[in-house]
Automatic annotation (TrEMBL):
<feature type="binding site">
    <location>
        <position position="109"/>
    </location>
    <ligand>
        <name>Mg(2+) 2</name>
    </ligand>
</feature>
<dbReference type="InterPro" id="IPR000146">
    <property type="entry name" value="FBPase_class-1"/>
</dbReference>
<dbReference type="GO" id="GO:0006000">
    <property type="term" value="P:fructose metabolic process"/>
</dbReference>
<dbReference type="GO" id="GO:0006002">
    <property type="term" value="P:fructose 6-phosphate metabolic process"/>
</dbReference>
<keyword id="KW-0479">Metal-binding</keyword>
<dbReference type="GO" id="GO:0042132">
    <property type="term" value="F:fructose 1,6-bisphosphate 1-phosphatase activity"/>
</dbReference>
<comment type="pathway">
    <text>Carbohydrate biosynthesis; Calvin cycle.</text>
</comment>
<feature type="domain" description="Fructose-1-6-bisphosphatase class I N-terminal">
    <location>
        <begin position="26"/>
        <end position="188"/>
    </location>
</feature>
<dbReference type="GO" id="GO:0030388">
    <property type="term" value="P:fructose 1,6-bisphosphate metabolic process"/>
</dbReference>
<feature type="binding site">
    <location>
        <position position="111"/>
    </location>
    <ligand>
        <name>Mg(2+) 1</name>
    </ligand>
</feature>
<dbReference type="InterPro" id="IPR028343">
    <property type="entry name" value="FBPtase"/>
</dbReference>
<keyword id="KW-0119">Carbohydrate metabolism</keyword>
<protein>
    <recommendedName>
        <fullName>Fructose-1,6-bisphosphatase class 1</fullName>
        <ecNumber>3.1.3.11</ecNumber>
    </recommendedName>
</protein>
<dbReference type="Pfam" id="PF00316">
    <property type="entry name" value="FBPase"/>
</dbReference>
<feature type="binding site">
    <location>
        <position position="276"/>
    </location>
    <ligand>
        <name>Mg(2+) 2</name>
    </ligand>
</feature>
<dbReference type="InterPro" id="IPR020548">
    <property type="entry name" value="Fructose_bisphosphatase_AS"/>
</dbReference>
<feature type="binding site">
    <location>
        <begin position="112"/>
        <end position="115"/>
    </location>
    <ligand>
        <name>substrate</name>
    </ligand>
</feature>
Length: 348
């Protein structure tokens, strides 16, 4: 039986007194307030005029939009009122030291799906919570260079038709929706289970010619549908907001790919390990799905730098495992008989 509200859920998570747990809960409460502020700003209908404008490039060379900066400011400010030692953001080159004594480190993508701001498509905020580690005077990035298996919790807000929070504190992946009538987040689902099998994939197919052979073969096989080696038809979706693609997969299954490709700067794909791939992988695994960099489990990768990119595949567990086999043992893929090794549909 789902707890009725986010508050009830957080209270039940608290259990016996424990510094880390109560820090996690206090931080999530601050995050929900900040996300509600962002949602209210978005709802004022001024996005096109005031927020879709661009500024300079961020630490990683991406063009920042005004809403990226606005969201970053709001979340950074919120974290000053939370038991957070360090704040690392997509929009800032270096982590910000907030309170040396505090037990947590937060990594955040304050505004995910920036290219969708002026098109009124869902966007979001992705976060992960880690134990603050290392000597207080040491490298402030050290806390963020822990593998994702060390996460204490992760989640994302999605600013869509509903303001939803998808959250895991290590025991299932739960969905809360802001009830404007009750003025609080209400639990919509106790814990999501991503079906292991799927007939739906998400990828930016415009990059087909830049992909490695394994990715092309996988997509070719899906596209051949009932006439190809998979023997079933596939549907395709690509929202270009990671939060929205992930939300759909949590609701009905599917597989998402943002592989590395041959474009300049895209050898490791587009998404960032610490504040995009890790939290999404954590949520997906907690919902019985899987997440890899095509071969290795995302949560086991030791980050080497805060803004590093990583190829990402996540979603329905059997499909994710199949994509790994296309990379590691393509000849052993049972269905890939010689008949099917012809040129793909998209190929010249
Ligand atoms: O425009 P592309 O290459 O399809 O990339 C879309 C991907 O880039 C992202 O927008 C990257 O995130 P940011 O908007 O936070 O930079 C993801 O949300 C999305 O999955
Ligand atoms: Mg993002
Ligand atoms: Mg972003």
């Amino acid at each position: 039986m789902p707890a009725a509200t986010l508050d009830a859920f957080l209270n039940s998570y608290l259990g016996p007194p424990d510094e880390l747990r109560s820090a996690v809960v206090a931080t999530i409460r601050q995050l929900t307030q900040a996300a509600t502020k962002i949602r209210n700003t978005i709802n004022q209908g001024v996005l096109g005029a005031a927020f879709a404008g661009t500024r300079s490039a961020n630490a990683d060379g991406d063009i920042q939009k005004d809403l990226d900066i606005f969201a970053d400011d709001i979340f950074l400010d919120a974290m000053r009122h939370a038991p957070v030692a360090l704040y690392a953001s997509e929009e800032l080159e270096l982590p910000v030291l907030l309170d040396r004594q505090a037990p947590l480190a937060i990594a955040i993508d304050p505004l995910d799906g920036s290219s969708n701001i002026d098109t009124n498509v869902s966007i979001g905020t992705i976060f992960s919570l880690l134990p603050a580690t290392g000597a207080p005077d040491g490298n402030p990035a050290a806390s963020f260079l822990q593998a994702g298996v060390n996460l204490l919790g992760a989640g994302f807000f999605i600013y869509g038709p509903q303001l939803a929070l998808v959250l895991s504190l290590g025991s299932g992946t739960h969905v809360f929706v802001l009830s404007t009538r009750l003025g609080t987040f209400v639990q919509a689902y106790e814990s999501r289970i991503i079906p292991a099998r799927t007939q739906e994939f998400a990828i930016n197919a415009a990059n087909y010619r830049h992909w490695d052979e394994a990715v092309r073969l996988y997509i070719d096989d899906c596209l051949e549908g009932t006439e190809g080696p998979r023997g079933k038809d596939f549907n395709m979706r690509w929202i270009a907001s990671l939060v929205a693609d992930c939300y759909r997969i949590l609701m009905r299954g599917g597989v998402f790919l943002y592989p590395g490709d041959q474009r300049k700067g895209y050898r490791q794909g587009r998404l960032r390990l610490v504040y995009e791939a890790n939290p999404i992988a954590y949520l997906v695994e907690q919902a019985a799905g899987a997440a890899t960099d095509t071969i290795t489990r995302i949560l086991e990768i030791e980050p080497e730098s805060l803004h590093q990119r990583v190829p990402v595949v996540f979603g329905s567990a059997r499909e994710v495992a199949r994509i790994t086999r296309y990379h590691t043992e393509p000849s052993a893929i049972g269905e890939r008989a010689p008949l099917f090794s012809r040129r793909g549909l998209f190929r010249a």
